[in-house]
Amino acid sequence: KNQVEQSPQSLIILEGKNCTLQCNYTVSPFSNLRWYKQDTGRGPVSLTIMTFSENTKSNRRYTATLDADTKQSSLHITASQLSDSASYICVVSDRGSTLGRLYFGRGTQLTVWP
Amino acid sequence: EADIYQTPRYLVIGTGKKITLECSQTMGHDKMYWYQQDPGMELHLIHYSYGVNSTEKGDLSSESTVSRIRTEHFPLTLESARPSHTSQYLCASSDPTLTGHTEAFFGQGTRLTV
Questions:
Q1: A44: closest CA among B66, B57, B91?
Q2: Rounded to whole angstroms, how far apart are CA atoms A100 and B15?
Q3: Which of A18, A59, B74, B106 has the most neighbouring CB atoms within 10 Å?
Q4: Any chain B CB within 8 A of the CB of A114?
Q5: CA of B79 vs chain A CAs: smallest distance (Å)
Q6: How far apart are CA B85 and CA B34, in angstroms?
Q7: pLDDT one-digit tens code per residue, A49-76
Q8: pLDDT one-digit tens code per residue, B53-98
Q9: Which residues on chain B are in Cβ contact (under 8 Å) with A42?
Q10: A46 and B108: CB-CB below 8 Å?
């Protein structure tokens, strides 16, 4: 069964600190993995995409890693800001259907305190 | 910012009412989706469409129905709303990117309370 699991479920950190969010998946055949940021009451917005051949990718203060062998990904946030408070969702796309089927994790709820 | 819009943003209605949630996109995407998301939970696919006159049910059973008469519109209808329909409904559209990967763009969501 294709699944995406994220940890931790929730996380509280102080402003300026770093944090790392984890994503494990069993989706096969794998196409790509995206990290989305979802602010409360809004739709998810894509942060970064990882394909099979990519190990790490950075987007400003966000750095995503992918280990396709162990089917694990992480999202590292550097020097957190209050505006980073949101739900971070790991989304994996398969390669086996015309839909480009998306599988969603439950998300990690990040709260940044001043 | 993606050009996909949902209306209304918030809706509070009584049991038994018929409602239609609107979703429009101006990107010319063929694929459109409806997801249902309860607080703290993952997104569940309830309907999707490959294009005009194409609609399919998703993973999560839903009493709602959809139509795709025009490429840009993908409305979702509940004939008789019940308290169990209380949730957030997210609309998305996608097409393959230049690199061949699928990216989904999400609307702001409609928070429905019955």
A1: B91
A2: 36
A3: B74
A4: no
A5: 25
A6: 14
A7: 888 788 899 989 999 999 999 999 999 9
A8: 999 988 788 889 999 999 999 999 999 999 999 999 999 998 766 5
A9: 108-109
A10: no
